[in-house]
């Protein structure tokens, strides 16, 4: 199978990647990753979003495979012309955002260095020989990273929770790792040296005297195996910094926009929203878990952020759209909404933006 089709078999939905995890000896996925009190989004065994939708079934996934002739080809290699060498620290009321690629960012503010969903591995997959392969290098070479203080991991899909990268970070940086409930067990199962703190929606964690993070609900789901669907929680992040309050949306469907208005009303105003724009085709399959660019623009309006930054595009082929479709579609959606390009920014891997 050509490399341009691999994302169809190992997409962020995690289902076929999960099959590989089972076949190649990963932990028995019937195990519990979290035990705790029942809540409006946890029934004692699995998590759910009361305002969301159930993930698609294996039958739906097979239906998608059967129609994959409509998938756009990606190039085998699409390098970015940029390579970032971040400073050791950023102090004062400034924020520097370095784009690693796909959903990975380095945030530097208040003298604190934060990685979000760090993925330096070649593939977003449970196995090293198959699955979505990156088409460009990480925009910040691993050896160029400054001392990392905190890592935020939004959820367990392979393009966000890269256990091999977390092992490297644990060995070289020993950062504090913050993640939603249950993902700490997934990490420790891979490598006991990965020591993570797991929190629930709306928990607030002080990272430094000037920086804090709150986990917030999103319309998504989780799985790394065939039998662990929704046994770990997913979340977005509201990050308080000296440069203002940030709203980071990892993966999320749009739905009726409730979660974005909720974030505005409970945690706004926001200086910046970091919003996903990719992995959205075909819509009948992806609508409930990934926004398209039109919906990302609507999410910006709903959350009321002053500025927006795009992510989740251009590195791993996970779904059917072309490599350049998310950015083209975003520009069209911004034009239709009369939003200037400088308000909703797009970075290439290796580019940085300082506010």
Number of helical segments with 4 or more residues: 9
Approximately what portion of the residues adopt beta-strand conformation? 15-25%
Specify the overall morphology: globular
Specify the structural class.
Answer: alpha/beta
H/E element sequence: HHHEEEEHEHEEEEEHEHHEHEE
Give the radius of gyration. Answer: 19 Å
Oligomer: single chain
Low-confidence stretches: 1-29
Largest sheet, strands/sense/barrel: 7 strands, mixed
Q: What is the mean pLDDT?
A: 91
| Total DSSP E strands | 14
Question: Strands of the largest sheet, in order across it?
Answer: 6-5-4-3-2-1-14
The N- to C-terminal Cα distance equals 44 Å
| Helix share, percent | 10-25%
Written account of the structure:
This protein has 355 residues and is of the alpha/beta class. Helix content is 22%, strand content 18%. The chain contains nine helices and 14 strands. It has helices spanning 6-9, 15-23, 58-66, 163-172, 183-190, 258-267, 283-286, 293-303, 325-336; strands spanning 95-101, 104-109, 112-116, 150-152, 176-180, 196-199, 204-206, 212-216, 236-241, 244-248, 272-276, 307-311, 344-345, 352-354. The strands form two sheets. A seven-stranded mixed β-sheet has the order 6-5-4-3-2-1-14, with helices on one face. It has a seven-stranded mixed β-sheet with strand order 7-8-9-10-11-12-13, with helices on one face. Helix 8 crosses helix 9.
């Amino acid at each position: 199978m050509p490399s341009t089709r691999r994302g169809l078999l190992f997409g962020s939905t995690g289902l076929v990647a999960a099959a590989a995890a089972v076949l190649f000896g990963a932990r028995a996925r019937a195990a519990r990753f979290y035990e705790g009190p029942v809540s409006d989004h946890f029934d004692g065994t699995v998590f759910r979003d009361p305002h969301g939708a159930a993930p698609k079934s294996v039958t739906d996934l097979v239906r998608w495979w059967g129609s994959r002739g409509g998938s756009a080809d990606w190039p085998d290699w699409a390098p970015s012309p940029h390579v970032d060498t971040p400073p050791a620290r950023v102090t004062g009321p400034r924020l520097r955002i370095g784009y690693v690629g796909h959903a990975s960012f380095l945030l530097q503010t208040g003298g604190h260095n934060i990685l979000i969903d760090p993925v330096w591995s070649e593939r977003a997959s449970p196995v090293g020989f198959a699955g979505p392969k990156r088409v460009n290098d990480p925009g910040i070479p691993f050896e160029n990273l400054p001392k990392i203080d905190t890592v935020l991991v939004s959820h367990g899909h392979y393009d966000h929770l890269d256990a091999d990268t977390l092992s490297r970070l644990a060995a070289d940086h020993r950062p504090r790792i913050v993640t939603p409930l249950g993902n700490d067990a997934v990490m420790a199962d891979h490598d006991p040296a990965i020591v993570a703190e797991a929190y629930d929606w709306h928990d607030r964690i002080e990272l430094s005297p000037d920086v804090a993070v709150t986990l917030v609900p999103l319309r998504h789901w989780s799985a790394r195996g065939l039998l662990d669907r929704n046994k770990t929680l997913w979340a977005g992040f509201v990050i308080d910094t000296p440069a203002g309050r940030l709203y980071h949306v990892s993966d999320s469907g749009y739905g009726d926009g409730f979660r974005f208005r909720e974030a505005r009303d409970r945690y706004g105003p926001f200086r910046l929203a970091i919003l996903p724009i990719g992995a959205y085709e075909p819509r009948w399959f992806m609508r409930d878990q990934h926004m398209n660019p039109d919906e990302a623009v609507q999410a910006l309006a709903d959350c009321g952020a002053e500025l927006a930054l795009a992510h989740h595009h251009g590195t791993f082929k996970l779904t059917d759209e072309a490599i350049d479709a998310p950015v083209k579609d975003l520009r069209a959606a911004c034009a239709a909404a009369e939003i200037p390009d400088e308000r909703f920014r797009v970075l290439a891997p290796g580019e940085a933006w300082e506010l």
